[in-house]
Write a structure and sequence with these properties.
Elements lengths: L1 E4 L4 E9 L5 E6 L2 E6 L4 H28 L5 E5 L6 E3 L4 E5 L7 H16 L5 H10 L3 H8 L12
């Protein structure tokens, strides 16, 4: 199985070996991942690996954008929501969906920018959209494209 992570320009080959023992995941070659697990735990194992990868890559990306904009947040959580790409709480905590890894770079950047803007404007007011527009010149196009972004997800995730 191939897994294309468009956001970070990586394509991984996933090899699954059935095992009755404890689940293990390890890189066996550049862009090649071996998952040993019971068949029933294959998806959960892969999702766990993707969440760790998202924390590392999306976390650095979010921090870099935040630094550029002089916007700080308190905490980052990586989840696997069905309908949200991200969210921001009034406590300045940002939640991102690990499935963002499958989306094109411009859409991920839009989501990260959108959530960081919520640190300053915790709503979708006119002021919020003006702030987003001042950072993401293509926000209208990106927002529209995001509505159909599930097309980038592998079938086993939808």
């Amino acid at each position: 199985m191939k897994v294309e992570l468009r956001a970070i320009c990586e394509t991984w080959e996933i090899i699954h070996e059935k095992s009755d023992q404890r689940t293990s995941i390890r890189k066996i070659a550049p862009y090649q991942l071996l998952i040993k697990s019971p068949r029933a735990k294959k998806r959960a194992s892969l999702e766990s690996w993707l969440k760790k990868k998202a924390r590392r890559h999306l976390g650095k990306w979010l921090q870099a954008i935040g630094d550029d904009l002089n916007i700080t947040y308190k905490n980052l959580s990586i989840r696997g929501q069905k309908r949200r790409w991200g969210s921001c709480s009034e406590n300045k905590e940002i939640n991102l969906n690990y499935k963002l890894l499958f989306l094109p770079h411009n859409l991920v950047e839009h989501v990260l920018t959108h959530e960081l803007c919520h640190i300053k404007e915790l709503n979708h007011s006119k002021q919020f959209w003006q702030l987003v527009a001042s950072i993401d010149k293509n926000y209208r196009v990106n927002r529209r494209l995001l509505h159909n972004a599930n097309q980038y997800l592998p079938k086993w995730l939808t």
